[in-house]
Amino acid sequence: MKKAYNLVNISKAKSEEAVQSICIKQIPFTGQKQEFNRPPTRTVRSMSQSSTDSFASVHSDTSDDESSPRDKLQKSTKGPSDFCIKNISQADFGRKEIEMAEQEMPALMNLRKRAGGEKPLAGAKVVGCTHITAQTAVLIETLAALGAQCRWAACNIFSTQNAVAAALVKAGISVFAWRGESEDEFWWCIDHCVGTETWQPNMVLDDGGDLTDWIYKKYPELFKNLKGVVEESITGIYRLYQLSKAGRLSVPAMNVNDSVTKQKFDNLYFCKESVLEGLKRTTDIMFGGKQVVVCGYGEVGKGCCAALKALGAIVYVTEVDPICALQACMDGFRVIKLSEIVRHIDMVITCTGNKNVVMREHLDKMKNGCIVCNMGHSSSEIDLAGLRSLDLKWVHVRPRVDHVIWPDGKRIVLLAEGRLLNLSCSTVPSFVLSITAATQAMALIELYNAPEGRYNKDVYLLPKKMDEYVASLHLPIFDAHLTELSDDQAKYMGISKHGPFKPNYYRY
């Protein structure tokens, strides 16, 4: 196996020299034998912005102006003129949201202090496509503090916090996004974020692969200048592996999704809290005694199941992987096929990242009032095409809540039109997002500063030492004190006393 070495040099402090400057063995990842295709077609009904969200969805627009932002002349007294957002006048409110998020994102604030003087991203031109929230804004402004120029679009039509987008623009970041974009507007924003003759990116930060795919399809010449792609979602990682397997990956790519700090914290702990918040805010449901099916028992599914079980719900799990199925059984959940229980359930939550998980045939059999939602990144898990057939009627009830009504009067409750529940329907825990955002920042720094030849045109895992470093940045907030290995103990274990403490194949 080939070896390459990564250098983490965020601080010159002697006590941290071993933590931040160390040789890491790089482990390439193999791809899957799947054809690389355009992302699933987004079928989206345009939603009125005049509907007033609850304050907790804060970030919705309560303006009566229903016109598309791209039809308006965009002006800002400060910041760039090249942007397209809902309402620049909300910038001050958005700044307060960002400042609140900063209090719960210690790693990024620490990186600003430690690496700001060195500017490890000086000269970097980062084009990003992620959820545009207060937490992501802290990441974007951290990248800017480290020397990068940034342009940003949204990876989800419902998750953009309009006030935050305004604050970013006022701070000098070109943003093309607003909450409630249509399908056409979604791709228009990505195109205008990338397609400018006066600014060309040399780094990509993507969430879902839509931005990377768009560049491949419409602006392939940009890959000549790109130093790397950082991807954080399982959907986007699948696409990159498919490209790599087909020999079509043009630049090195860093797989942040499978780093331990992302998988265990963003996927597990984050979803365990945010799934309940999204459901409560949209449906006001009480969970005790409800029968719920969670499709998929990966880290996201594990978090959802744990949260639902804690509130007294009766939880079933569907799985294709026998190892995950066995874990579900040992955790006290019954593993079944959806078709076996679909007539009796009160709620189904998809967490697979796959497509066609809940089909029209399942939806036809569900009882009146069943809630259907998705916690996976992809919007293709629920058969929306089947729900949009002419025999069914849609009634918009409140923001991100629709009733789909059958001819006999039966209705199901569909949340966020099958898109990501937590980021579309609620706010998110800043602390957990700090962990994910820090891994993204570290991956960008590594790829941007890597010497020629360190990375080939392949997909790489974030080095374990960087994973451990990101975790260490968050321990002080808990006043946690790590035990130090003695020289004799380290020798006995065959590791450095400063880490990494586990091999890359270790499963936490």
UniProtKB/TrEMBL annotation:
The main enzyme category here is hydrolase
Pfam families under this entry?
Answer: AdoHcyase (PF05221), AdoHcyase_NAD (PF00670)
Give the organism the record lists: Pundamilia nyererei
Which keywords does this chain's UniProt record carry?
Answer: Hydrolase, NAD, One-carbon metabolism
Q: Cross-referenced PROSITE patterns, in alphabetical order?
A: ADOHCYASE_1 (PS00738), ADOHCYASE_2 (PS00739)
- Cofactor(s), by name: NAD(+)
Instruction: Give the metabolic or biological pathway.
Output: Amino-acid biosynthesis; L-homocysteine biosynthesis; L-homocysteine from S-adenosyl-L-homocysteine: step 1/1
The cofactor binding remark recorded in the entry reads:
Binds 1 NAD(+) per subunit.
The top of its lineage is: Eukaryota, Metazoa, Chordata, Craniata, Vertebrata
What's an example of a GO molecular-function annotation for this chain?
adenosylhomocysteinase activity
What catalytic reaction does the record list? S-adenosyl-L-homocysteine + H2O = L-homocysteine + adenosine
Q: Does the keyword NAD apply?
A: yes
Name listed for the protein in its UniProt record: Adenosylhomocysteinase
List, for all copies, the residue spans of the domain called S-adenosyl-L-homocysteine hydrolase NAD binding: 267-428
Q: What is its EC number?
A: 3.13.2.1
Lineage top rank: taxon: Eukaryota
What's the family?
Answer: Belongs to the adenosylhomocysteinase family.
Biological processes, Gene Ontology terms: one-carbon metabolic process; S-adenosylmethionine cycle
What residues bind substrate, as annotated? Answer: 133, 207, 232, 262, 266
Q: Which InterPro entries match?
A: Adenosylhomocyst_ase-like_sf, Adenosylhomocysteinase-like, Ado_hCys_hydrolase_NAD-bd, NAD(P)-bd_dom_sf, S-Ado-L-homoCys_hydrolase_CS
Q: Where is this region: Disordered?
A: 30-84
The question of whether Transmembrane helix is a record keyword is answered with: no
